[in-house]
Amino acid sequence: MKGRLTQWLAVLFVAGCLLFGFPLLTLWDREATLFGLPLFPLGLFIVWGILIVALACLMERGGRR
User: Fold this and answer.
1) pLDDT tens track of the chain, all 65 residues?
2) Cβ(8)–Cβ(58) below 8 Å
3) Domain-by-domain residue ranges, the chain?
């Protein structure tokens, strides 16, 4: 089971690198706002939070089995 957890952690790492990479970050770099907040920092914060939640879920599930 530890091998599978390692694979999922590697997938999560690659996903984070791709999501925070230059080409995708330019999609968020606009003068638009959402609920009065600039879209770029809001998008970064949401993606960062999703990655943290996914990592926490993986680590909790990996420790139980």
Assistant:
1) 578 899 999 999 999 999 998 888 888 778 888 888 898 888 899 999 999 999 999 999 875 55
2) yes
3) 33-65
